[in-house]
Amino acid sequence: MTTRNSEEPAAHAAEEADFGFRRIPAGEKAAAVRDVFESVASRYDLMNDLMSGGIHRLWKDRMVDRLNPRAGERVLDLAGGTGDIAFRILARAPGAEVAVVDLTPAMLAVGRDRAIDRGLLTGLAWAAGNAEALPLPDRSVDAVTIAFGLRNVTRRDRALVEARRVLRPGGRFLCLEFSRVTVPGLDRLYDTYSFSVLPRLGRLVAGDQDSYRYLVESIRRFPDQPTLAGEMTAAGLERACWTSLSGGIAALHIGWRL
User: Would you say 152 is a known binding-site residue?
Assistant: First the structure.
């Protein structure tokens, strides 16, 4: 049985990665992403409500509906530091176990505080870790979820392989992420809103315009629905499929370890 540590995987000195519209050394991306989320952690959930008009809640409900968790199942929620997905899973399936792994300790601190406020003292585990080197044994969870986090990973291929590694045979991988707009005309409106409104909203509410500019840019760098499905298949996640949400602003991808 293999267990990985949660440290940043070694990167070749010449390797680069997207950080928004910029290219930076791949070995520096995890720290840069951590800095972004350290900055916005305290207002992250409020900003999600303001930016999406609350629609992100419906998308997350849809994800957990498709997951259909059951008591006794163990779920790994990646990049879920503030607890939004974990809380939904436990509300749907008391008796399930959810391990939340997030790169950013400040996000985990917000999630732990929210769990205490909700009286959720059992069924949850919290750990700082990197999606590319998960601190879990092989074949140890029934499902892996990640909501709005995969685009911040330095090497998606490694993260997808790791997700498959920790899944038990028959386990599911569910990824909710911003995606490619599929409705004609909506893409132009969405671009205007994203690049003109969201960074200003980040400055006014979270006091951090640059972080929200990065988050918008990271959405545009993320692959479209068929491309991500192909990456999942290449990582060994079979029967990869997706459902576009709100005209493709977001998409829910699902794959299985068979």
Answer: no
Return the bridge partners of 251, or none: 177, 244
CA dist., res. 195 & res. 230, Å (int)? 28
What is the pTM (predicted TM-score) of this model? 0.89
pLDDT in tens, 165-184: 999 999 999 999 999 998 98
Q: Which residues, in sequence order, are CB contacts of 91 under 8 Å at separation 6+?
A: none
Domain range for 27 is 16-183+212-256
State pLDDT tens for residues 174-231: 999 999 998 988 888 888 877 877 777 777 766 777 877 888 888 889 999 999 999 9
- Known binder of ligand: residue 131? yes
* 110: its two tokens: 């917000």
Q: Is 130 annotated as a binding residue?
A: yes
194 located within any domain: no
User: Is there a binding annotation on residue 187?
Assistant: no
CATH number at residue 83: 3.40.50.150
